[in-house]
Amino acid sequence: MRRLIPRGTLLPSPRALRSIALGSWIASSLTLGLVAAPAAAQPQPAGAAQPASKSGPGTQAVKAANDTIASLLKQKAAPGSKEEKDLAAKVTTSVRGFLDIDQLGRRAMVDNWQKLSRAQQDQFLALLRSLIEDNYVRGLRANLEYQVDYAGETTDKDGNVTVATKINTKRKGRVYTIGIDYVLVKDGDKLRAWDVKTDGVGLVENYRTMFDKIIEKDGFDGLIAKMKKKQAASGS
């Protein structure tokens, strides 16, 4: 299966960011590269889904977030300038409102979550948020050219809404398509995403494989040490 960003890489490069829209840009920003993880199994659906509809509340939520964040990513500011930092803060706020990083992290740590103390859980989620959000500014330095097609949405028996999109973009003059699926759930009065799948490969499953491998070898403290090392290297 083709993947835009290989698992086990370091933080996303400007080249990787140049050809991606919100979904695949988020996927790249979430690539931690803490370990060269083995290929993860294809995530299975949570339950039988209703027939796809062309548009609905899920599609509207994804489109609104896509439009807002993409418009910010396309703005130009001098690297390291106050304007760039202000833009990065706006992107961070927008993504936080759409992507539930805490729920993503809890689901990815499902095999070990109940074994952790509350302090350990809080420490892990804080580091995960920091690592992800530190990458947002990289998107501001990318040249994005793409078109998003919304292919419909389905709702499973557990209330998860999956919105399918196709990102049509170019690389070196060649047109190609990336499939991005957003998995959303109701959070208060709005829908928020807890997983993003690039060509069928979910972030939660990738993270779960990575975190489980590190914890099995080095324990939870080893995972935290790797995350802190990555944080220090990126200047968080």
Q: How would you sum up this structure, described in words?
A:
- With 236 residues, the chain is an alpha+beta fold.
- It has 8 helices and 5 strands.
- The protein has helices at residues 14-17, 22-29, 57-73, 82-98, 101-108, 118-134, 136-139, 203-233, and strands spanning 146-155, 161-171, 174-187, 190-198, 201-202.
- It has a 5-stranded antiparallel sheet.
- Helix 3 (57-73) runs antiparallel to helix 4 and helix 6 crosses helix 8.
- The longest helix has 31 residues, at 203-233.
- The two termini are 33 Å apart.
- The relative contact order is 0.22.
- The model is unreliable at 1-21 and 36-50 (pLDDT under 50).
Number of strands: 5
Main β-sheet, spatial strand arrangement? 1-2-3-4-5
**How far apart are the termini?**
33 Å
Radius of gyration: 17 Å
**Given the helix and strand composition, which structural class is it?**
alpha+beta
Instruction: Note the main sheet.
Output: 5 strands, antiparallel
Note the overall shape. Answer: globular
Succession of helices and strands: HHHHHHHEEEEEH
How many helices?
8
Mean pLDDT over all positions: 77
| Model regions low in confidence, pLDDT < 50 over at least 5 residues | 1-21, 36-50
Strand content: 15-25%
Percent helix among the residues? 40-55%
